[in-house]
Amino acid sequence: MNSLREIWGNRFVHYMTELQKYMKFVFTGHLAIVLLFTIGAGGYAYSEWLKEVPDNFPSAIIAAILLGAALVFGAPVTLLKPADIVFFLPMEKKIEEYLRRSLRYSLFSQLPVPFIIFIVLMPLLTATNVAGKTQLILTAVLVFLVKWLYVETEYVYRRANEGSGMWKDRLLRFVLAALLIYVMLANLPYFIPVIGLLMAVYYLFWKKKSAAKPFPYEHFITLEQNRMMRFYRFANYFTDVPHLKGSVSRRAWLGFLMRAPKFGQTSPQRYLLQRTLIRTDDTFWLWVRLTALSVIGIVLIPFPIVIYLFIGALAFASSIQLVHALSGGDDFRMDMLFPQSESTRQPAIRKTVSAVQLLQALFVLITGFIVVGLSVSPVIMAVIVLLISEVTIRLSKEKAETA
Fold this sequence. Notes:
mainly alpha; 15 helices; flat
């Protein structure tokens, strides 16, 4: 029987191969363009805002809340499989060797999120004279230590309680982490050992509790399966994931958009594509999220040029993702039952996505009029959405035809 170290090594190699297999489709050219424009627009707006931020802005409180939230979330990555309930039983006393490696990977895979947030917050903390260079370095060290402790704490809490009551555990740890970050930034060093001691006592309490209970295989296996399913659903926005079955919902409240077909007057392709778009959960909610981000961006971003870049990037993302989602599918589709050639499908996809993006442009236009008022700026926003969407749809169509 292989040692647990070898089992972890083999599974980790397979896991990284699986990640690379799908991530190469995620970070393609169109997503790079969206990220470039989004990060560029956000960075420009942020830098302009920092020039006017007042010294009494509560940057320490905001940093404590954001970093506290980033430090709290992060379930352990165990790479456990359903068969391990039986397979690992003879080695249960040695399972800690396997879990030590899983917790080590969990720590380093989850560190980027709090550190990226911290790096983004550094100019704000400097602009408001909250923290100097030494204080920022000490805060970074503190972020690392808290994240390490919280990865261990979440593991022992889940092991002791089989995952029940996680919201209470995370709420308590969030309060402690936010307080610790705040007293560091507020230059109140005397409170740091007190809060750190509370964190350590909380961890040791659940570690002792977990040691007295058998390892909850079912909980950690379910946790791992759910984590991978979230990744597969995300990857499915960019490429077909064969073993992922998407969920569908009727959405009767959108029935007015799905009129009954009229014999000889309704295109079978458009009829089915409209229902596919509305009733497929992943595709429908993807478009809703991107449209909502466009609306939120108009409300929150104070610079028109940044808004134009932001909504243009999201219009591009919406169009390319919808075209991909509607062009893909199983080996058998309902439109194959209709006496129409395959060549009618691509024009129907183009018309369907164009109609949906027209609706997105309408939301942008209405939001623009509400926020900016009656001016030419909201019209420019809507035109940008329509123009970029149409260009993206046409380019996607040409690429599909040449493929």
